[in-house]
Amino acid sequence: MLLPKPSDLPAAPVHQQILDIRTQFHPITLDLGDYDAVPAEAGEYEIPGGAIYDALIARCALKFQADIIYTWNLKHFSRLGPAVTQRLRLP
Questions:
Q1: How many CB atoms lie within 10 A of CB 79?
Q2: For a surface tag, which of 36, 51, 56, 79 has the fewest beta carbons within 10 Å of its beta carbon?
Q3: For 90, how many CA atoms within 13 A lie in the half-sphere containing its CB?
């Protein structure tokens, strides 16, 4: 298995890119109730292991009331219930 080559970018330009991109996004904060609910919902939909991270991303999108959730991973996200599935789109 080939691993991706580590980035050779200097820290300062990377930091500037992060600062620049932040102006285009609205951060969503999950609270303790969200973190309690996500594993319970994942169990309800039989979501295995690492897909819990997809469930956390979906929880953020639902909390924000996003109309669309863009993902290359439709398979994992489509298991997260109808509220998520109806919002899924490929980029």
A1: 18
A2: 36
A3: 3
Q: Is the separation of the CB atoms in 53 and 78 below 8 Å?
A: no
Kindly report, residue by residue over 2-13, the tens digit of the pLDDT. 655 666 778 888
Q: Kindly state the tokens that stand for 16.
A: 């500037």
Reported residue count of the chain is 91
pLDDT per residue as tens digits for the range 30-70: 999 999 999 888 888 788 888 889 999 999 999 999 999 99
Q: Domain extents for the chain? A: 29-89
> Global pTM?
0.72
CB count within 10 Å of CB 47 equals 19
> Tokens standing for 35?
């973190």
The torsion angle over the Cα atoms of residues 71, 34, 37 and 35, rounded to 10 degrees, is 90
R_g of the chain computed on alpha carbons: 16
